[in-house]
Amino acid sequence: MDASSSSFKHHTSSTEPLIKPDSSTTTMTILITGGTGKTGLALAHLLHAANHNVLIATRKGVAPEPFKAITFDWSDHSTFENPFKADAHIDRVYLIAPTVMEPLVDMKPFIDLAITKGVNRFVLVTATQADKGGPIYGKVHEYLVDIGVDYAVLRPTWFIENFGSYAYSIRENNEIVSVTKNGRIPLIGVDDIAQAAFDALVAEKSPNTDYYVIGPELWSYDEVAAAFTEILGRKITHRHITHEEQVALFKMFLPAEYAVLLAMIEARIADGVEEAIVGDPKAIVGKVKLRDYIKANKKLWMKD
After folding, report:
1. CA-based nearest residue to 195, from 39, 90, 24, 35
2. Are 54 and 60 in contact (CB under 8 A)?
3. How far apart, in whole angstroms, are the C-alpha atoms of residue 112 and residue 11?
4. 104 phi and psi, to 5 degrees?
5. What pLDDT sits at residue 63?
6. 3-class DSSP state for residue 205?
7. Alpha-carbon span 107 to 40, nearest angstrom
8. What are the structural domain ranges in the chain?
């Protein structure tokens, strides 16, 4: 079945967003950790366009124009003061956790410091399957709730843009590999996650809750492969692999423990856990569609 027939509507009307924007202006600064990453840079552009002051935190301390950047590394606590030395007016922070099994170990000291410096709202990005108090991101989510600070936790599903990150397999091997079987995912675009983060950061009233962030269509990886076949004009297949094979692939670019956990989470897609989120009252539904992304970035998967 063509996935375009599987689209679904936002559970609220377009005139009543889950997070209502603040119509006032502010001279305060929003700090973006992971500021040159997929969602961080998209968020920075949205904030800049709306005339909000932005400070980018990256390990290298550099960012594209027109943004100001400072050196910040979760694994180096001596860099935690840098944002506040550069700008004394930071009052809101966008949190992208480090890719480690216990991110709270490094994030707690920074969160505590930020509060003493006047930060009064945090927006944390986790994942659909990262429940409050659960492993990895869930501990950070729980900590924000427990300390009583203003916050929002965004829990996006799997990124549409991941197919760009895995371009080699599609371009060179004409295949997508996964353990998802026939499970379906409401794939989400980075721009939609950035928009949800923007809304949470600038809202007049802090959400103080968590939201799923999902896309407007459900896709199985077989259906994704069919879409690539149609748009690229050559046969792309979805090769079903074992859990062990998926772990080995993830270990090529992730720490071993993290790779094992991520493979387990991806395997749960086959059980329908991502599809079950559709229609949840706390789901923010984006607008970016997979076909549009493939068409706009077609050169990524074209053979030389």
Report:
1. 39
2. no
3. 36
4. -60, -30
5. 96
6. coil
7. 17
8. 8-159+189-214
Q: How large is the average pLDDT for residues 2-26?
A: 45
Alpha-carbon distance values, 106 to 18, 95, 139 (Å): 31, 12, 12
Task: Give me the half-sphere count of Cα atoms (radius 13 Å) on the Cβ side of residue 274.
Answer: 29
Beta strands in 169-271 (DSSP E): 175-178, 184-185, 209-214, 219-220, 237-240
Cα–Cα distance list, 85 to 62, 93, 118 (Å): 16, 15, 13
Query: If 0-12 CB within 10 Å is exposed, 13-18 middle and 19+ buried, where does residue 285 land?
Result: buried
Spatial CB neighbours of 213, under 8 Å, sequence gap ≥ 6 = 154, 155, 156, 157, 188, 192, 193, 196, 283, 284, 286
Q: How far is CA 304 from the centre of its chain?
A: 31
Do 211 and 284 contact (CB within 8 A), yes or no? yes
Please compute Rg for the chain using Cα positions: 19
C-beta neighbour count of 227 within 10 angstroms: 20
Tokens of 186: 């409401």
* 15-19, 94-98, 293-297: the lowest-pLDDT one: 15-19
C-beta of residue 118 within 8 angstroms of C-beta of residue 104? no
Secondary structure of residue 285 in the 3-state scheme: strand
The model's pTM is 0.90
Take residue 132 and report the two structure tokens written for it.
């409050």
Rounded Cα distance between 177 and 181, Å, is 10
**Which pair of tokens denotes residue 193?**
């996650």
* φ, ψ dihedrals at 17, nearest 5°: -65, 155
Look at domain 8-159+189-214 and name its CATH class. Answer: alpha beta
The full length of the chain comes to 304
pLDDT digits (tens, 9 = 90+) for 181-202: 999 999 999 999 999 999 999 9
